[in-house]
Design brief:
Layout: H1 3-7, H2 13-24, H3 30-36, H4 42-46, E1 49-50, E2 58-59, H5 76-111, H6 122-132, H7 141-157, H8 165-168, H9 173-181, H10 189-199, H11 208-237, E3 243-247, E4 257-262, H12 266-278, H13 280-285, E5 291-296, H14 297-307, E6 311-313, H15 318-323, E7 329-332, H16 341-347, E8 351-354, E9 365-366, H17 374-389, E10 404-408, H18 412-420, H19 429-437, E11 443-446, H20 458-469, E12 473-477, H21 478-486, H22 492-498, H23 501-514, E13 523-527, H24 532-546, E14 555-559, H25 565-576, E15 581-583, H26 593-607, E16 611-613, H27 617-644
Parallel strand pairs: 4-5, 4-7, 5-6, 7-8, 8-9, 11-12, 11-14, 12-13, 14-15, 15-16
Antiparallel strand pairs: 1-2, 3-10
Helix pairs in contact: 5-7, 5-10, 5-11, 5-25, 6-7, 6-11, 7-11, 10-11, 11-25, 12-14, 12-17, 20-27
The chain binds FE(4)-NI(1)-S(5) CLUSTER with Oxygen and iron/sulfur cluster (SF4).
Length: 655
């Protein structure tokens, strides 16, 4: 690829350097495979290909009598709606199954069967216990943890008809009522997903509105599963506090054993970090200067937040970590691991190690990871990487000397601690007051992935810079945070370069009082994708403090490069919570005006949140900003009116 062509494919200079090297070596990556897939099928792209039964595939051509419906008579709106919500089922399964594993590990830790894990954050355990109604007074920490874990596991399969505990105890009364009236509060995570698969089975539900609402119920299960995953992970490994680290391929160290942890579930990656610390000497004996753990995707975000592990790549650039020739082992757990990484490993000495019984790649080494033998397994894995270091071919090592400073670790609690330095009695009011005074214009949360249909990292970085210039406070999770980290937006350098005057004054005020020996970043990294629960906690407490329903809050979300089913399930619960959510890649819904309208218009009337589909990043930034301005303006008007007429502010929606 030429330099001009590379610029059209990635905004990350380190990725561009490695892509050029891959081109020269004639090694194919997902960038090449995307090109080879063009043109992609229009029926699939617009959602009107149905493969739900094996009479199909049925492809809809609206203008052609006979082909305007599937063989069974399913209309385009039914097919598009079914396809869309099945993405949500996939996303909710992945997030919640991750949460279930964490809950089991907490249970087994409390029972004494998982000896390598411990209850690290007792304060968080007590907070969660009190919130969900588990007695704490005079009880043993292990007993409390056991009851909390059982309550979490009950959320997957309880048989009463009350909403899931992790949903019901983290939303306000207004949303509770809304979910009751629309009948979308899940009573059990597994049930809502099973029911959705049933609902979308051939010949069950043909009503697109009913199908979408079934999808939203599963989306709230996604929320439930990830919220409990965050809570219980904090209990096991600690609630993140600010940490300094770095991001991009330059974090690989030619003189050390480089191990990448890739995937999502921190039960393994945390152990690998601990094992690497213990085995440092063995690496030195093998001729290296030590062990360097780097992160990819969300398991990378987990260990970045808690251990300051540097990020090597986000989803889009995962193969390119191997392309450096300096990666000795890639350890994968679950989700978002492109099977193509194995092809790259075959060109270098890198060992691909799979660890989960449900996530294997042909040709890789499998070390089954068990919680009973966690540390032993992690050590086995690290030792394999050390042995692999000796097989490295120095002539193939080419590490781009590009990396950026990162200040991460902003859990909801860490953010509140920071705000408490200014207002100890009511920390959250530091943000809401700044919005009311107009110093900052609102909050935008960046989440989601990379997608070959967009320029790698470009939209995420562009929208963030545009909104920062306009004084919008920014938070992020997932691979979006990875993109922003690599572009220097998770550092104080980012504040100097891109913050508008109001945002800069706001961040500097926090910084002066922070007591940290690091400057604060332009964008606050709140964690992995399951940690979007932390962002939900943020908007909930802002709305509570302002005494308004969430749909009135100047808060927006953006997934500029959404890719996975998980991104669709997250976006779907974000809108049910009352938050406008931009998506920069059009999902396959254009085949039905009705479904498109439901997600972008009707959702606004019912929930106050809705999707904004916009592929142009500049236009997307403008649209997000307009939403914030409109909500902030309405709030001011309502407040003035309430003062004038001595009434309470309007509780209606943004409209
Ligand atoms: O769960 S942002 S590409 S790694 S799906 Fe996957 Fe998307 Fe990355 Fe994290 Ni989230
Ligand atoms: Fe075709 Fe209907 Fe079967 Fe879908 S469910 S593949 S539309 S016959």
């Amino acid at each position: 690829m030429s330099t001009a062509e590379l610029e059209k494919r990635t905004a990350d200079p380190a990725a561009a350097e490695m892509l050029a090297a891959a081109g020269e070596a004639q090694i194919l990556t997902s960038w090449d495979r995307y090109k080879a897939q063009q043109p992609q099928c229009k029926f699939g792209l617009t959602g009107i290909c149905c493969r739900i039964c094996i009479q199909g595939p049925c492809r809809i051509i609206p203008s052609k009598p006979g082909q305007d419906k599937g063989i069974c008579g399913a209309s385009a709106f039914t097919i598009v709606a079914r396809n869309l919500v099945r993405y949500i089922a996939g996303g909710a399964s992945a997030h919640s199954d991750h949460g279930r594993e964490i809950a089991y590990t907490l249970l087994h830790t409390a029972e004494g069967h998982a000896k390598d894990y411990k209850i690290t954050d007792t304060k968080k355990l007590l907070q969660v216990a009190e919130r969900i109604g588990v007695a704490t007074e005079g009880r043993d920490v292990a007993d409390i943890a056991k009851d909390v874990a059982i309550k979490a596991l009950e959320d997957f399969g309880k048989y009463d008809n009350n909403p899931c505990t992790w949903l019901d105890t983290t939303i306000d009364e207004e949303r509770r009522r809304k979910f009751r009236h629309t009948d979308i509060a899940p009573t059990a995570i597994d049930r809502s997903i099973t029911q959705l698969m049933h609902q979308t089975h051939m010949g069950t539900d043909a009503d697109p509105v009913n199908i979408i609402f079934g999808g939203l119920r599963a989306a709230l299960s996604d929320y439930t599963g990830m919220y409990l995953a965050t809570d219980l992970t904090d209990v096991l490994f600690g609630t993140p506090v600010p940490v300094m680290t770095e991001a991009n391929l330059g974090v690989l160290d030619a003189e050390k054993v480089n191990i990448a942890v890739h995937g999502h579930n921190p039960l393994l990656s945390q152990m690998v970090v601990y094992a690497a610390r213990e085995l440092e000497k063995e690496a030195i004996n093998a001729g290296a200067k030590g062990i360097n753990i780097v992160g990819i995707c969300c398991t990378g975000n987990e260990v970045l937040m808690r251990e300051g592990v540097p990020t090597a790549a986000n989803f889009g650039s995962q193969e390119l970590v191997i392309m450096t020739g300096a990666l000795d082992a890639m350890i994968m757990d679950v989700q978002c691991i492109a099977p193509g990484v194995k092809d790259l490993c075959n060109c270098f000495h890198t060992m691909l190690i799979t660890t989960s019984s449900i996530s294997k790649v042909p040709g890789s080494v499998h070390i089954g990871f068990n919680e009973e033998t966690a540390m032993e397994d992690a050590k086995k894995i690290v030792r394999l990487a050390i042995a692999q270091y000796g097989k490295r071919k120095p002539e193939l090592v080419k590490i781009p000397q590009l990396k950026k400073q990162v200040v991460g670790g902003f859990s909801y609690e860490a953010l509140m601690d920071l705000l408490a330095k200014i207002n100890p009695d009511n920390p959250i009011s530091v943000i809401t007051d700044a919005i009311e005074s107009g110093e900052i214009k609102g909050v935008c949360a960046f989440a989601g992935c990379n997608n070959q249909r967009t320029i790698h990292d470009h939209a995420t970085v562009t929208i963030a810079k545009e909104l920062a210039k306009r004084d919008v406070l920014l938070v992020s999770t997932g691979c979006a945070a990875g993109a922003l980290a690599k572009a220097g937006l998770l550092s104080s350098e980012g504040v100097e370069a891109w913050a508008g005057p109001g945002l800069k004054a706001f961040i500097k005020r926090l910084e002066e009082n922070s007591g940290l020996n690091a400057g604060l970043p332009l964008v606050f990294h709140m964690g992995s994708c399951v940690d979007n629960s932390r962002i939900a906690q943020l908007w909930s407490s802002m709305a509570k403090n302002m005494n308004i329903p969430i749909p009135q809050l100047p808060f927006v979300a953006s997934a500029p490069e959404a890719m996975s089913e998980k991104a669709i399930s997250i976006g779907s619960w974000v809108i049910t919570m009352g938050i406008p959510c931009h998506v920069g890649v059009l999902p396959p819904i254009e085949g039905s005006d009705l479904v498109y309208g439901l997600t972008t218009q009707i959702a606004r009337d019912v929930f106050g949140g809705y999707f904004i589909f916009e592929t142009d990043p500049e236009k997307a930034a403008e649209k997000l900003y307009q939403r914030l301005e409109k909500r902030a303006w309405k709030l001011r008007i309502h407040k003035l009116a309430a003062e004038k007429y001595e009434s309470t502010p309007d509780q209606g929606y943004e409209g």
